[in-house]
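Notes, Module 5: Reading structure tokens.

Key idea: the token line is not a picture. It is a compressed description, and you learn to read it the same way you learned to read a sequence, by spotting repeated patterns. We will look at two proteins. The first is printed below with its tokens.
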Amino acid sequence: MRMNKNQKSIKPGKGVRTFFIYFTLVLFIIITAISVKTLLLIEQSLFDGKYINIAISNNKKITEIIGFNAEKNTVSHLYIKNSKLIRHDLLDKLGILIDARIDYYSDVTNRDVLKLLTNAATEKDNIQTDLTIFDLARLWIIAKNSSGNKTIKKEISLPLPDYEIDKNIRSLFKNDAITSRSLSIEIINAASVPGAGKKLERALTNEGFNIISVSTKKEPENISKIRYTSESSYVVGKLKQILKYPAVKSNEKSIADVVIIIGEDKKKFFTN
């Protein structure tokens, strides 16, 4: 049978080349999308790779604080009985600043930390969290390796005097990576909230920060900030993360290596 002149013969190699071109293009798009998603998860991560403190709540009431120490592969639990605290109370009532939260709305008691992290990752039991899947995976590994004496558990029953609460908080959640650096910190209360500086001093001291001065500024400042004079460090990064204040390098003279200014924009965190 004679082929029409207008018909073109299809070479076998041409179809294979077209397939590989499309395959390579699709593979490139998939790899790029995965890379971008991974970078976004890392950027949104609340776990600095060393320490993280997480508030656990059941029906909005704080029932537990869990601390993960990646350097020692330890997990610390503080169980809170008779708790009527909500997340907003943590700074004022417990003297702690948390990095993340896990909120669940089931009546499960004695929840295992591995199960808790797994359920948070799969959003089972109507769990909500601000941790990323990347965070949860890394914390799951730490929890898995923290067997025996690497798991520390304490229980308090509220109400309790502040000094007793602080003793427990410091024993469980003190950040050695902060303490070892010994950077001095000054707190300036530039918000119209009496006692805000002292509340922040208590929480930061409990975590291991070296507070050397707390003062009040007569003229309020609108924007809270962290000023540092030397190069940015783990201490500055951690403060920026837990306070959600912008960090700026400054040449202003100060008695401390780092200055925290509480402004009007953050005063709601220091009021009941």
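Here is the second protein, with the sequence above and the tokens below, as before.
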Amino acid sequence: MKVSIIVIGDELLLGQVTDTNSGDIARHIAPYGWEVNDVQTVGDEAGEIRLAIDRAFELSDVVLTTGGLGPTKDDITKKTLAEMFRSEMRYDQR
């Protein structure tokens, strides 16, 4: 199974934070026969996220994202993904 990982966050592109997640993910999924064939880092911009997701699905069977889901109120990742997959976000108190 081919896997693409998309790492999302301006802080990664600016060098403020180092991406350790993609390596950890690759090591954890390798024993199951999953092969990471693509890792992309994109900023906190809806258009960049959409392009990365589209590209990843052209290359891989599975697309995993990391970053971009932080607690900041201005984060756009969840909203962008919901729009791309024609879904809606719901608040669940549980």
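Summary for the second protein:
- The chain is about 35% helix and 20% strand.
- The mean pLDDT is 91.
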